[in-house]
Amino acid sequence: MTDHRIILLCVIPLAAGLISIALINRKALSRLVGILSYTLMLGLSLSLLLKITAAPDSESILVSQMGGWTAPFGISIVFDSLSGLLICAAAAVGLGAYVHSFSVISPVTERRYYHPLMQFLMFGVNLSFLTGDLFNLFVAFEIMLMASYALLTIGGSKAQLSQAYKYILLNVLASTIFLMAAGMVYGMFGTLNIADLARIVAEHEAANKELPAGFKSLAVMFLLVFGLKGAFFPLWFWLPDTYYTVPISIAGLFGGLLTKVGVYTVARLFPLIFASDGTSTILADGTMLGGTSPIIQTILIVAAAFTMFLAVLGAVSQHHVRRILSVHVISQVGYMVFGIAVMTGNALAGCAFYMIQHMVVKCALFLCCGVMEKHAGTDDLDKLGGLLKRDWFLGVLFFIAAMSLVGLPPLSGFFGKMVIIREGFFEGMWYLGVIGLVTGAITLLSMLKIWSYGYWNPDQAPTTNKPEAVKASCKPAYAAITLLVVCALFLGLGAEAVYKVANRAGEQLDNPKHYITAVLGDDAYAKVDELIDERIAQEPAGPASADGESLTLVNPEEEATP
Amino acid sequence: MTMVLAICVAVTFAVSIYLMLGRELKGVAMGVFLLSHAANLSILAMSGSPMMTHAQQEAEVAAENGSHAHIVDSPLMKDPPILASQYANEQPLATMVDPLPQALILTAIVISFGVMAFLLTLLVVTNRKTQTIEVADLAEEARKA
Amino acid sequence: MNSVWMVMIAVFAPVTLGLATLWLPRKAIELRTAVAVAGPLIAFVMLLMVTSGVKTGLATQHAYADHEHAHQIISEKVDLTTDTLDWMPSLNINFAFLTDGLGLFFGLLVSGIGIGIFLYARGYFGKAAPTSADDLYRFYPTIGLFTTAMLGLVLADYTILTLLFWEMTSISSFLLIGWDRYDKKAVKLAMQAFFTTGLGGMGLFGGILVFGNATGSVVEGGIWRWSQMLEHSEALQAMLLNVTSHPQLLWAFVLMFIGAGTKSAQFPFHYWLPGAMAAPTPVSAFLHSATMVKAGVFMVGRLFPVFAALPLFPQLIIPFGAATMLYGGVVALQQHDLKRIFAFTTVSQLGLLMCMYGLGAIDFTYKDHVFAAIDFDVTQIANHAFYKAPLFITAGAIGHFLSRDITQLNGAFYKHKAICGTMMLAALGLAAVPGTISFQAKELFLYGILHAADVYPVLWVVMVMTIITAVCNVAICVRVCTTLLGLPGGMTEADGEHHGDHHHDHPHEHGLLAHMIWLPGLVIVSFQFLGGIITPLWNMVFGIFEQPATAANYFQYKAEGVPSLLYVAKHLGSIPLWISMFCLVAGTMLGLSKFFRGSIKDFADKIYPAMYWLAVTGGGKCFRLVQTGNLKHYLIFVLGALLLGFGWTVAVDAEMWSTLTGDEAARVFEYWPGILIGLIACLTAVLIPMTDIRIVRIVFLGACGFAVVALYLVYQAPDLALTQLMFEIISVILFVIVLRLLPKEKKGADAGKAWRIPVAVCVGLVFGWMTLTAASHNRGETTNPDAQPLGHTLAQHSYGLKTDDDGNPKLDTAMSGDVGKRGGGGTNVVNVILVDFRGFDTLGEIAVLGLAAMGVWSMLPHRRRKGIKYRKVESDYPKEALDPLESEVTT
Amino acid sequence: MSSSILRTANGIIFPLTLLFALYMALKGHNMPGGGFIGGLIAAVALVLYRMSHGPDAMMRLMPVHPRVIVAMGLGIAALTGVVPLVFGEPMLRSIAPYISLGVGDPVHLPSALFFDVGVLLVVVGVSVGMIVRLGEEVEDE
């Protein structure tokens, strides 16, 4: 369904960014514009999301073709359940981090293009979530990355600068590979539109026809690129080194948003396109079940396992709040990769749910850390203590967020994790399931570490930091954290409503038909249907499978060798 | 001709990786600079060979010399992606190089310039703050922090 | 069918009222207590009503019928589930409750003892103490949360709802153990307890998920409700008996047992429970003796009707249970802190309860015995609660006034008669003296072992372990009594050095509420003696909760009860009775003897620190192995991953090789100038790392760039060539400027050159090869032969309407939609693509450019210098906060 | 850096180069050229001008911070894209009308031209801004 309003989600931050360049010396006005922009984004994305949630399947994907050029000739902007959820969460997280920064960022830093950069970052992030074009995705990544490079070095402390180059160089390398891979996609398929690619892949699958030579290698390259942005094993190194040097609000924003963009692209592109091996099974009801490339799935499984486990060990061994939280970002990404690796509709739904809740919760934790630092003047656990006495409200907020992160029911982290692990067990990936559970327990330990050393234990803060003074100066921070924690609570207690949307997102990711017809028009999928009908006609329903489900199993290997 | 580009891509990429693995960030920056060349050339290769195929040459020559088609010795190149006239339905599009990769490269060049400039400035500022741009020294800094 | 609302009110009343107390004024302690106590009271009343609703069919029942016909079943099937209140239907978490005997019994136990504990807390924290207002302010909400969690846990029907409440009990337990928040030791112990039970919680979580997944063939979508599990017990048991073909069920059980075992402090994970004694005594009495620690036992009881069919069930549970029982009993004897003594006896008793379920599973297959070990599970559990809670309550009380160290308490009875009297009465329960219900319970347990051992002689080991444990328990009782009464044989100060313990020195107060520090204990312990002496009364109350052990008739009630003392003496056979007598005598002797009087440490206390060390230190080492901070290593990791992945795909993709031998290779030499330029580009690139002189490097870099420009020209890309040329110029200027700002190269060998070359070459080859593969793929030949690359379509529509033969504009109907009807209005296709077809890319791209510039300006703010005087702009940033170096805008 | 020969030469070349840049930008829709190329040529010219005439002359030429130019360019480009949204059209919907000026042939004025102008401004602003800024650092050393 066409709806040109969706591009406003990119226009709003762009416009706000430009306005705040003009207002570079007006602190209050800049802040006002920024808040307005985030609020507008949040409101718009929520209203659009509600709209498509209520709509029937055929109208549940909103599309706008840039320049009015029909897909695949122009650039398609697509707003489906997954992008909708993520943009909502991103706007909320952005608003939280932005408001929080008012109480922690120094005026000097703030004047150095902080406001425009925050807006442009959202421009890039929203565009990444929205775009339906591979090359445009590259551009969106670059906007986001460029803004993040600048935000990473903003303020320019020694610690920041001595680490920032790694983030930038690794990302430049990944971007270059992305660029080449996008070019190669054009070389192989003559198109860049994601829906068009999905169509071509679906046609291959329906005909059980091999995908072009080098397709698998291309998929590996994409995985490397997105894996690096998403901080998968063994590509996460840039993350811990850089996140604990930036101003804490920015760390919160990065921790919440940036890795999710990488994970999102994997979730978007892999089940639909790059994880395909060109084979398929036709189910009894005439729907097609695409085959999954064992290489890609194995890589994802290995990545998920190591990302979850190794990173949580890293997190629990740190002795600074920021570092614990930073390294945890990676570990949690492991769960999302787990969801993608399972690659069923339900697992992807779980992954979507997990992503949005993690954005909110992780950002909230970072922001809490910001206030903790204000109280104690440090984030070293050995020098913290007794914060509960100083600031019980912060303690409550932190505790809820921390337990959400750990995933104790009924808080938000639980539900996504539950669905993912359930599907993992169901699909026979019990090893991932067990690692996921153990990781959960160690996550608990690390959060308890922060809680026990930070909020309990004797107070060691310098007496100069009067609790009242800190509280007074951190009013925006409290507002921001409260906002995010309320969101997190809603995601937990109201998980049903959110999960329904996530479930639809999972379905849309699992079944390319909706996406393809929404972007390319109803005829686009006709060829696939034709091919499926042909195959059903050729091979009448085979014997019922052992489980009693009547599958017409078409084994591609057997077919290929006559 | 694609082979030539592929070799160029391989060599520039290899050299840039070699430079990026070096011990000083100046060399690394040069590696990044080369990296963008490698990427651009790789995309350029996707527009296919700039030389016409045998059949295309025959058709071209036939169009020029009436029906007496004979292949000239020197190879014919395709046209640049600029339409000869405003109502160009006569334009033999098959003998024009694919314009889309060019547009992609143009975008990529601009972006890589931006990144490059930022990276170079970062080096200057980093050097000013940390007094070093040696990778090993900066890693030491990370361990200390 | 019960009203779900009644149960909902029962479950949520404690937390609601507990939280409500937060809004009461801090000093209003009496009011606070009243409001908080109303919580468990309401829950208790509600559950009683639910019970009476369920049990109407039992009115006609004769509870203590003749035991010759003990398995007579009243064959009235009762619906034990409530309605469902939808919460998250698609995630299988709704409010529905299973109000069976086990659940309701636990519910009543929790709320009933809860009332006592809530009142006791008032006495314990005391009105007169300066901190009590604060303590009570925090205490009631937290303990209310716990009560709710516990009630929900035992009553929930949805498996995941059970898990939800399960974790909630862990959280509240954590908050309560760490009550002394600023005491590092207590905080550590709280962490230890939460981590251990949390680990188990993850096990339960996994077990529930695996179970739900594995039962998809029984119920559509899997089993996510306990009642469903019980209803389909036959099908499930058939699967369990043949577990090799359904290994998932086995793992489901093992995982759930990990949860149950850690929660119920089974050896070797029992260490957290003695540690949990850092909590205030009301908490110890409530959570860590009477209720929460039984959650694991409860879980095993829940699973029992179905999972008893699993051969592994007794094999796993009996060894763990027996070991826990023995270890707890023996260690308890050698403690000095009253709370630690009782904590270890709790551990021991939990082991016994577990063991009982294990034995029950064996009996399960031999139904013809008169009493199965499992028949009186509720009695066993209730029995323990009714002496252990009073023991803790009085331990806390005596700790208040004197000390909790038993060596300090010689003759304490004469100072605090009520408290010590209650404690001694409860201790009699611990010792299982005839006259307490404990005695019958132990008899039944021994009886169960005896019968099971007939079939499995290996169980004699368990018998011996039970005897030793019983002897220890009696010895503890003897020592407590003799000490308190100041008799010879009691513990004295000579037995151990006095450690500073939690001595809450609260001022004395008077009045009824002050007596709450021991009164609830007396009320609770009275059940012991009521049950022991007037056994029919006990049966009337608790018999109705005893569910049949077999799953087949789980939803029916049976009419039987705990045998009375007389019956035990008459019928149960002499062996258990003799064993009991032996234990009493031997225990008394041991208690009076000098053996085992010292205080020992529990070796399991080291387990958690070891795990912590392993995770933190070992895991940290593991992590730092990859997180070196060095860019070089990171690049190697990334490139290594790339090479591995690529190598693997090439290995399986045979067609990749064809591109190397295909006709692309043959067409290399078709255009000589192209080759020459390519050669220059390669050569200049290779020369860059050959030199150390930076200006030469830049020259080569520039030369390489110009070669690329030439390549663009060869490829008929004039726009590209022009743009690249200009950017090349600017970039070289930039490089020259920047290199002047950077330090000079250090002379010396560039270390590690050798290994860099193969890595670089491999990576280069990967991308060269991929370029070739992708470019040589014939794009026309996708599934749709008509399809042409986008670029060609874009070229066709670059200007606009096409013309027909007469030069008139015509619509291209072949193209669908908008593209056919208009064009971009330009003849330079590349530019039209840039600004029109893909204009959005360009918008993004100039945004990147702008961002890069902003990044540069943000890193290098302008300094005050003569030359630069931009237009003066007002700023509303605070003046003093400005960086003195920054003066670009002000001046 | 500022030799008199360079200064004199640049005095002549500079306006010509700027004109050439404008020409390249405007004809870009039909011939090789366009906003990028035009912008870059202008940027190179401006950088050379600063080298030959010094920063003060540059300030007289460009009295505002380059970010203003960048923001303006981005704003123009974005505005070109956003205007169609107001009319319910998708973003960046182009039109290419012939506008009659009363004299001579009607002028072909594609809306993309405005977009190109935006691009040009951004490129000029960024290149000049960055090089000038880094150049100052060198001069400060």
Helix and strand content put the structural class of chain B at mainly alpha
β-strand percent of chain B reads under 5%
CATH class of the largest domain in chain B: Mainly Alpha
Net shape of chain B: elongated
Q: Per DSSP, what share of the residues of chain C sits in E-state strands of 2 or more residues?
A: under 5%
User: What's the total count of β strands of chain C?
Assistant: 6
Number of helices of chain C: 35
* Overall pLDDT of chain C: 83
Question: Over all CA atoms, what is the radius of gyration of chain B?
Answer: 23 Å
Number of helices of chain B: 5
Q: How far from one another are the termini of chain C?
A: 82 Å
> What is the makeup of the main sheet of chain C?
2 strands, antiparallel
Domain module tally of chain C: 4
Tell me the Rg of chain C in angstroms.
40 Å
Question: Using CB atoms under 8 Å apart, which protein chain pair has the greatest interface?
Answer: A-C, 144 and 127 residues
Give a structural overview:
The complex is a heterotetramer of chains A (562), B (145), C (891) and D (141). Chain A contains 24 helices and 4 strands. By secondary structure, chain A is mostly helical. Chain A has one domain (4-560). In chain A, helix 2 packs antiparallel against helix 3, helix 12 (294-317) runs parallel beside helix 18 (430-455) and helix 14 (345-376) packs across helix 21 (495-510). The radius of gyration of chain A is 23 Å and the shape is globular. Chain B folds into 2 domains: 1-48 and 98-145, Helix Hairpins; 51-97, no CATH class. Helices cover 64% and strands 0% of the residues of chain B. Chain B has helices spanning 2-20, 25-45, 54-64, 99-130, 135-144. In chain B, helix 1 runs antiparallel to helix 2 and helix 2 runs antiparallel to helix 4 (99-130). The longest helix of chain B has 32 residues, at 99-130. Chain B starts with a helix and ends with a helix. The mean pLDDT of chain B is 82. Chain C has 4 domains: 4-608, no CATH class; 628-745 and 754-773, no CATH class; 790-858, no CATH class; 861-891, no CATH class. Helix content of chain C is 64%, strand content 2%. In chain C, helix 13 packs parallel to helix 18 (460-485). Chain D is mainly alpha-helical. Chain D has one domain. In chain D, 72% of the residues lie in helices and 3% in strands. Chain D has 4 helices and 2 strands; from the N terminus they run αααββα. Chain D has a two-stranded antiparallel ribbon with strand order 1-2. In chain D, strand 1 (98-99) and strand 2 (107-108) form a beta hairpin. In chain D, helix 2 crosses helix 4 (112-140) and helix 3 (66-86) runs antiparallel to helix 4. The model of chain D has no long low-confidence stretch (mean pLDDT 84). Classes of the chains: A mainly alpha (562), B mainly alpha (145), C mainly alpha (891), D mainly alpha (141). Chains in contact: A-B, A-C, A-D, B-C, B-D, C-D. At the A-C interface, helix 4, helix 5, helix 6, helix 7 and helix 8 of A face helix 5, helix 6, helix 24, helix 25 and helix 26 of C.
